[in-house]
Amino acid sequence: MSNEKGAVIWRILFSVIMAILLAGALFAYIYSQRSYGVGSQAQSLANELSRTSFSALYRESPTYNLPKDVGGSYYEVEIDSETDSIIIKAEGGTYHSAVGVNLENIGKPPEPGGTLYSLGGKGKVLVSSNPITPENQEIKENIDSPPSFYYFAKENPREAVAIAAAYFRAIEIFPDKKLGVQEYKKENSNSFLIRISSSDENIGNMRVIGRENSQVVGFVESSWIVDNVSVVPDNFSGVECPSIENSISKDWLYSPDQIVRLLKKRSWREPGENEPVSIPNDVEPIPATVKTNVSTYPSYRFEFSSSDTGYVLHFGLMPWKADEEQSGFVFESEPDLEAIV
Question: What is the DSSP string of 43-54?
Fold first, then answer.
């Protein structure tokens, strides 16, 4: 009798132990699944905020509405200006996504259920939990005043593009000299003479020839593309040119190398597609102007192929001052592209 009673007790204990073990295993499984869900959603959110921030360089003041939680977990958003990253701190981990451009937070980072606001300008993106307007004093303190070539380029985009094309070609020819542009002359709507100097010494004259292009690229209705830059013996009397080298040194005008690095800092894809668009290592920026329904702007043009699809991109030759009344130009492409992580 006692043996039977003992056996019953052991069976009960065994059942209890197994139930506890199964409950523990089930809890561990549920917790791991929850942690995976939290981590997956937290990383996805970091990536989305990163994409939104980067897109401020080429779209007007993009915003992103944050969820109230990630996978049922509370989270915090941090902006790391040292690594230019968006950080999501959630249950079980910290999740990062690099923006790929100078990033600066204004005020407090957005909270769950709030909105991320962003504003791009001069190669920098400002982000905040509140709407960002250029009139805010805090914003003005983060935006330097552009040099005279910026305003010259706004009013004379074709001349500015011709001057930039000649200047960067001259740097390739005379890499050991500190160069500047002394003066320029418009021969006709498609041809310009540019005098290159070094310490008040005339280095040489260059002719820049361009052509009209009617191809529509996104919101770009047409363009003018530099076709040829050559050294010429022609002597001419022209118009004094604002300092392009001053604009470059103060990051108010992108060199060809800079614009390629900016383009390749992120991966790109067509909206709704998963496959990334590969930017070739030897992609060449071509100085050009673009005409939109707002105005005409200086830009760089890129033409390349990826997976048997041809792409044309226009990227602004210079950053746009954030408090300008007139919208600037930063990026358009055909087919349409968006930045991804």
Answer: HHHHHHHHHHHH
**How far is 19 from 22, CA to CA, in rounded Å?**
5
Given a cut of 50, is residue 141 above it in pLDDT? Answer: no
Mean pLDDT (the chain, rounded): 83
Secondary structure of 152-206 in HEC code, one letter for each residue: HHHHCHHHHHHHHHHHHHHHHHCCCCCCEEEEEEEEECCEEEEEEEECCEEEEEE
Q: pLDDT exceeding 70 applies to what percent of the chain? A: 82
Instruction: For residue range 276-292, list pLDDT tens digits in order.
Output: 888 888 999 999 999 99
pLDDT tens digit sequence for 294-306: 899 999 999 999 9
Sign, CA dihedral 234-239-240-242, equals negative
- Count the alpha carbons within 13 Å of 1 in the hemisphere toward its beta carbon: 0
**Using the 8-state DSSP alphabet, how is residue 101 labeled?**
S
pLDDT band at 334 (very low <50, low <70, confident <90, very high): very high
Provide the CA 55 distance to its chain's centre, in angstroms.
Answer: 6
Nearest one of 270, 278, 279, 284 to 337, comparing CA atoms: 270
φ/ψ (deg, to 5) at 326: -90, 135
Q: Are 112 and 68 in contact (CB under 8 A)?
A: yes
DSSP per-residue string spanning 223-272 = EEEEEEEEEE------EE---HHHHHHTTSS--HHHHHHHHHTSEEE-TT
